[in-house]
Structure formats: C-alpha cells, structure tokens
Amino acid sequence: MGLPEGPSYVLKSFPEGYQLYDHNKGPVKAPRHDPYLCGSIHVNRFRSTNEFIPHALWLMQDASMDRSNCACKYCAKLPQRIISDNMGLSGMSARRSASIAGALPSSVKSQRVRREPRQPRAPPKPYAAVRRAPRPARTLVGPDQYILPEKDLDIRAALHSADDHRPRWFRKGEVLWCLLEPPIRGQRPEEDIHLWPGLVEDVHIKTQAVAAPEDSMQEDRDADMERLYKEAADDGSGAEDVSRDPSAAGPSTPPLEAQAKLPWKVQQWYVYKIKLLGTSQHAFVTDEQVLPYLAYAPSDYILDRAREELGEFLQAVPIDQMDRDLDLMSTFDPLEPEPEGEEPGSYYAKYQRAVAPFTLAIQIASNLAQYWLPTDEWECKFIIPPPGSAAPGQSGPSSSHATPPPSQPPPMQPPPPPPPQATSLHSLITQSLSQNAIPPPGSGNTRPTMEPSESISTHGRLPRSSTLGQTVIQTRFQGLWWGTERIWTDELVRLKIARCQFAPKGTDVIYPPAGPSHSTLECMKDNPEAAHADPQRLGSSEKGLFMRLEGLFLVDVPNPDGPGMIKECRASGMVYELVDDDWVEVVEANKPAEVNGAGKGKGKAVDVPNGSNSPRANGELTFMSQPSPLKPAPLPNPDPTVPVRETASAILSQTSPEAAAVANNAKNARDLSAQLSHPVLSTPYPLPPATKGFKFRPILPPDHEVVVSLSLISGRYYPGLFHHPLMTPTVAHALSLSTDDGGLYQHRHLWAMEGLLPGIHQSMEPRQWRKSRVVMLQEADKEARDRFRDRWEETKMARLHPPRAEEEQEQRPVVGTSNGEVAMEVD
C-alpha cells in the first residue's frame, strides 16, 4: 500500500458500511463466539481475517470498483488455501500465536514436571486355564400366530361411544348405502334416489377444535365464582386479619382446585372414503351419511321407474356410443351438482343418465352379498382326553340316563368313576368342540327351514375309543367375510332362529326362555289384545337370538353328494336372548340340574333306540348326550410322592391349570390360543349395549357354548341403529302405521336388525365361497356387467333387426313386454 516499513499497522476502522458481528452458538453459560464481518454487497459475510484482507485491498486500491480485480475467495472463486499461499498469509496465524506466547513472562510459563525413569518389568506369563465350554444364548422364540391388529381396532372402535363422536360401525371392504346430497330427483318424490351403494376403501379420523358455547362458559364462570364466595364466607376471620395487615395476605394466587376452562372443544369423527359402485367416483362421508347394507333397500317405486327408464335409455342411446362405453359405465357422477331450474326437464336429464349405472351398482352389491369367506386362519393345537378321563357324571358309551330339565328334580345317579389324573379345563372345552364337530348319523349338510313351529336341537357325540389322549390340530379363523359385511370373532352377531325354536322348554344345559317382566305385565293389563295372549309370548320367546362369536373352525363331515369327507366351517360361542331391562333372574328356576344325583324325587331312565347315542328326557332329545364335560373334576387324593409344600399346586395342576398358575404366582396372562379363542373364564371385549328397554341374558350356564353352522348367522348387530339420522324417519313411519296398513309386521325387517324379531326376516344369505375379497369384488362386477351386456345385446339386435308386421301382431297380446324386450331383473 506504499506505507513505510518498520512500524506495525492496524486497521483504523472498517470500510464504510462494514461492521463486525459476534455470533454466539452453543450453551448459554459457555457459548462459542464466531466473529463475522458483514457489509459487502457481493458477499454475505467474511469468516476470518485472511478472507477479508484481499477484499480490503481491493476496496482501498481499486478506484474502478471492478469486482473482477478482487482477489478474495468469493470474488475470485478460488480456495482460501491458494489465496493465502499467494499473498503470504499462510504462516501469519502461526507467527501471531508464537509472538503472543513469547511475550509472556517466564513466571507465567508452566514448568514441565520431570518424569521418573521407568523400572524394567518382567515379561508377562502366558495364560492357560480350563473351564466349561460356554453355551450360546438361548434365543426366545416369539409367537408365529398373533391377533390381527385390524380386528382389535375394528371391535374397539365399534364399542367406543362418547358424546363427541359416534362409534365406528363400518369397516374396510364392506358395502354400504351412501347418502347423495342433493338426491337425484325423479318425476315424483317417491322416485328420488337418495342412497347409492358403495364400497369402503379407507377410514380415517378427522379432528377439529370448535368454540365452546357461551352459555356453558358463563355457567362455568358462575359456578367458579359461587365456590369462591362460599370459601370467602367460610373464612371470615382470615379476611379480617388480612384487612388489618395487607402484607400478611401474600401474593394473590388462585385456589389450587381451580381449573382453567378452555374456550374451545375438540370434536372428532370418522370419515369414510367410499367407492361408488358402477362408477369411478369417490365420496367422502361421515357416519351420519352411510347406512348398513341390510338397513335399507330401494323402494318398489324406485326400482319400477329405473326399469322403465333403463328400457327407454337403451332404445334411445346411439349404438356405437353404448358399445364403446359399455365396459366403463363410469362417466356419470352421482354427486355432480343438480342442474339449475325448477322445470322437470332441467333435473330429470340427470335421473335418466343415472339409471344405467344405478341398476348396475345395485346388481354388483347383490352379487357380492352371495359370497362368503373365513379369513386369517391359525392352527389351534389341543389334546382330546381318552374316554376314561371324562369328568364325573359323564355318561359312558352304554349309558341311557339323562339329566332332566332344571324344572324337574334330578334322578339318582350311580357313583362317579375315578377322577382323572391330568385333565384341564381347556382340554375339556376342546373335547366338547370335537364332539360337536361330528354330525349325527344320516344328517347331511342341509340348511334348516325356518318355520315357527320347529325347534332346533343339537346332538352331542361321545369321544372315540382310545387308550391315550389324542393331539389334534384344528384350523381356526379370526374373521369372516359374510356377504357385504366384515365379521370378527369376539363380537356379537344375530342368528336367524327365534328363541322359541331353540329348546323352547329348556334342557339340562339350556335355560328356558325368559318371560315378561312385572312392569310389562302391568302395562299389558290395559291392552285388551295382549290380555288374552300367552304371557310367554310377551317375553323373549318370539324375539331373536344373539351369539358372541368366540370360535370359527373347520370340521370333517360326510359328503352328502358321495363317499368321503368334506370340510365344513362352523361357529361357536355363548348365545344370548333379549329380556326386559327390569326383568329379574330367578336363580332357583334356571339353575341347571346337578350331576351328582343330589336332589329329591325319583327319576326314570328312558331307553335309547339302537344307533343313537343321544339320550332322551321325557321323550325329547336333550342338548347333549351327557352332563356337561366342561365341569372340572373334583380334587383328587394327594400324591404321597409330592412334597407337602407342593401338594396344593400338584392337585390344582391336575384339575385346573389356571388355578395352579395363581397358586404358584406364575405369569397370570393368557397364552396365544386363549387370546384368540379365549374359551376359559374371560373375554377381552364387553358386550355392546342392547336395544333400548332390553338387556342381554345368556341362555347357557358358564363354561358352555353352542356350535352352529354358519348358515344360521344373519349378520352383524348395530347397537342404536334406530337412532341413526337416516333411520329415524323410517322408524317413525313404521311405528305410525295402523293395523289395516300392515302395522308393525310390515316393517319386520327393521325390528330384526335389533333382535326384536328373529334374524331370518333380515339376513345375509351367502351361498358361494371365494378365495379372497378381491376375487369377490371382481366376480360380482363381472357378473353384473355380463348381465347388462346381455340385456344390451338383445336390445341392439331388436333395434338393428326390427320385427315384421306379422311378428309384431303375434307379440302384441304378450303382457309386460315391449318390442320383445325383457326387463332386466335386479336381485
């Protein structure tokens, strides 16, 4: 810069516009200081002195301010190391540090401690020892079968009910009725299309914070102030002391129990992504905008108008256009805005375009209701005990005694056989399942007819002769596709039969139907029609049955079409009936008869015909061929070889592994088999609420279950369905009908959905098994489109080749046809 050499120079000030900043980084108590020089219009900041020196020289020496003359790393686009070497700045930092260290006085310099010389050490000795060879760590084997997370989530969401949102009834893959807003209007209001069938593709939760009502906020404030006034009145002496000495009051703080009231509330609801059948459109709806498939059916007015419009549409549509769009049928959007205008022609055009996809959607849903499939299989391994290990009181192969119904005293029984040595409650339950899996002789896989006068009975079978227990691996399932519905085990389903068809008088293990409550009888006194009716019909006898679906499994049954065995899927679980909510259980009347012969009175044995292992009581078949095998045996005599301190655990382990686990303070958790089928003592989910005014009552003693064919299942149970916004008008209309118009029986399909009538009045009727839900959807869609294509081909041929006058004269007397046209039927 032309300055004389010798003296040391420092920068008097930074160039105009430049300023040094100290950037603190790291913890507050010990931050790291990073100095940055800012102010250049070309560079954001300079990080060190060496970076700024070339730029400063350019600012001081170049009058043209041409940036190409600047040699800094940012303007020259060169590494800082090369620039420092060219300008001799590389050793500047090292020299500066050395000069600072040399300027320190000798007293400040630290003196190095002199280290003592090391003593020579002897070389280490080699190590040698003998030990046991280590074993590898024992790896824990996790379960290879588990409860499906989707099942647990669906059941818990259906049982959860709160004021802020409704329970989630519907599941992925189910077919529902989706509300159209606005509806597709026809020529008359009763012809309007309000609901469209759709498939649930996804479900998610939506959350929103809304402002709390002012009334509730004001009530909360008033309640808080009243509480504070009361506290001040109770503490009058303290107030006087504070008024005399304000400093004694301390800081003003709210009471500890005072809670702040938020000015908003959080609302949550479920949103369903629905694929509208017959189209390519999707709809996002809430629980208030969808209905179960069985809860609604298009009226006759809608179906008749749809058939008429479909025939007119196929006669008017261009042939080439229909051939091109036949496989798609997806251009129509049921949710498109309604055309403006009040004239019928302005909005009826949308109705005419909706007829073809609407009939196709109804047919797809109807086809899908014909399919079923058990899903998520797992293997349940259990041991069937030999006949000698049956519980006391069980009938042997040659036994002809039967336990009478609870209303009669039990007969005298012979002394029980010796108790088993290793019989668990779980093995007894699985033995019962295996017995129910064997059908009675001569019975085929036929569907029962639902006549009111019929009574359904279940026959038991004795175990096969074997000297040792048999280990059986049974295939079970966690879920079931039942038509348009997704059913899981551990939830309540409706059955087709009425209570009066299932042991109408009760048996040794089935309670008789419950009668009406006292309040119901009092109310019926003022009704002349009900006064002469049978009181039992006012109870649960005429109502439907429910089953907690605790097991889905496969059994081998004889092939009805030929020799050999085939697989059949059956369901098991506890059965419930509907009773009045104030109905009182009569324990003495409903208690099952004891099997040890204790009781008064005499019993008479009834001979059993040859070829039948089912004993009879009073000439009627009982539910099982022997007293329940689910009752554990009495405690056996202690084994003298077992130490005294372990006697209790040893005895319990022979009769009840669960009790032995508690006695030994073992891990009190159910294994995987118990979690999936949980046949012992507990169930993981509570029962859903019954319809208003009723409650559920089990019709079997504890530790019993019923095994039925899947054909007896009607479908899912939706608690509170009558209170759904879309169902309220229909229920109100059904209750308002007079006897001349059909009365309540005209809408029996509604009452069957809540169990007030047998489920046969509104049920799924699947008949065909398919290997997956995807295959069901594909075949249902293909079959519906094939039927539509056949109908179009017939109409097209009639249009291309119209009949001659003679043929038209012959076809004129035919009733119900037009130009040889056959209406497309909708199942």
UniProtKB/TrEMBL annotation:
A Pfam family recorded for this sequence: Clr2_transil
Region annotated Disordered, chain positions: 100-134, 232-256, 384-467, 595-643, 796-827
Domain of life (superkingdom): Eukaryota
Low complexity bias spans: 390-402
Occurrences of domain Cryptic loci regulator 2 N-terminal (ranges): 9-75
GO BP annotation list: silent mating-type cassette heterochromatin formation
Signal peptide range: none
InterPro entries attached to this UniProt entry: Clr2, Clr2_N
Protein name: Cryptic loci regulator 2 N-terminal domain-containing protein
Source organism of this protein record: Trametes cubensis
